[in-house]
DNA sequence: ATTATTTTGTTGACGAGGAAACAAAATAAT
DNA sequence: ATTATTTTGTTTCCTCGTCAACAAAATAAT
């Protein structure tokens, strides 16, 4: 296995591990809330005028899934929807008071995770940080270009 | 947002993107096979005496899910199960001839992905590779220790 | 201005995966 | 040797997310 594969698979494995662990911790602290719900709350709390489409793009999920998820959160009284006078189509979301509480608990948990992993990052030099960030940036742009190609290809199938 | 968060979220985003893109490509080339099925085939092709439990641990999935997945693959004639004379409990899997074909197609696709992303890695120096690998390694061990703590905690609840 | 296309969100049928209860074999404890 | 515990795999029920069909609003094309 060459180093490229090692890096990719290493990160894949690391990521699966982290998702699994944090999800466990999360559903332990925020009993009654699924991690997907919490992610949704996090996004709505952090962004301005989030709608179904923006949430879906951010999570790489379908609009349908987000539509159902937000409906459920509304039913639970965690978020509420609103519209703008100039647009009768788009529907935005904001946190309710109860939602803000969940949001805060999540933030604390987030800090806990950072605290937990502090030791790992303490060993990382500024240069290493920058090198990793530039790697991520480059790779991400590269994939964006590939995704763009893909969507062009798919469109051309129907021409 | 500090650099720790940037790194984590950057990789998370990069990863979601890559998974989404590769999954699309995969299900395009290997029509009729889901990406989870292909992952399963990949693992069975690469490891010796894989069983339900090993597959589940590797994919961070439940035994139940793998049990169903393998049953389906057997039905499709892609894998077959076998046992060892000294153990009547564990059930192992191997690829059938048809399964080997899928495996090979997957390998080629894998090479295609590497080829596609070659340009990104070409810019990475040996030192950067090693630094990222050691970061992954350190972090992964750290999380293993945390996961271990978690399972100890859960056990102590019932004592 | 009218029509065509695109964007945005919703719904229902379906499949994938998790949780829990279970059975059978293997291992540990006595 | 017998009993208790653990490991391994399966099945049933349920939730979550996808897909496809759809409706309504917004935008583009004519």
UniProtKB/TrEMBL annotation, chains A, B:
<keyword id="KW-0238">DNA-binding</keyword>
<dbReference type="GO" id="GO:0003700">
    <property type="term" value="F:DNA-binding transcription factor activity"/>
</dbReference>
<dbReference type="InterPro" id="IPR036390">
    <property type="entry name" value="WH_DNA-bd_sf"/>
</dbReference>
<feature type="domain" description="HTH marR-type">
    <location>
        <begin position="1"/>
        <end position="141"/>
    </location>
</feature>
<dbReference type="InterPro" id="IPR052067">
    <property type="entry name" value="Metal_resp_HTH_trans_reg"/>
</dbReference>
<keyword id="KW-0805">Transcription regulation</keyword>
<dbReference type="GO" id="GO:0003677">
    <property type="term" value="F:DNA binding"/>
</dbReference>
<protein>
    <submittedName>
        <fullName>DNA-binding transcriptional regulator, MarR family</fullName>
    </submittedName>
</protein>
<dbReference type="InterPro" id="IPR036388">
    <property type="entry name" value="WH-like_DNA-bd_sf"/>
</dbReference>
<dbReference type="Pfam" id="PF01047">
    <property type="entry name" value="MarR"/>
</dbReference>
<dbReference type="InterPro" id="IPR000835">
    <property type="entry name" value="HTH_MarR-typ"/>
</dbReference>
<keyword id="KW-0804">Transcription</keyword>
């Amino acid at each position: 296995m060459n180093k490229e594969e090692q890096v990719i698979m290493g990160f894949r494995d690391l990521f699966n591990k982290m998702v699994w662990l944090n999800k466990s911790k999360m559903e332990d602290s925020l009993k009654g809330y699924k991690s997907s719900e919490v992610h949704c709350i996090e996004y709505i709390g952090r962004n301005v005028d989030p709608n179904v489409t923006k949430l879906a793009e951010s999570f790489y999920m379908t609009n349908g899934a987000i539509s159902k998820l937000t409906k459920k959160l509304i039913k639970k009284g965690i978020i509420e929807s609103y519209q703008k006078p100039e647009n009768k189509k788009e529907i935005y979301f904001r946190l309710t008071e109860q939602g803000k509480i969940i949001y805060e608990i999540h933030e604390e948990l987030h800090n806990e995770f950072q605290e937990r992993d502090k030791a790992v990052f303490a060993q990382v030099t500024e240069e290493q940080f920058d090198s990793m960030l530039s790697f991520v940036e480059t790779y991400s742009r590269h994939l964006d270009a590939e995704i763009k190609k893909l969507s062009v290809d798919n469109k051309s199938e129907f021409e």
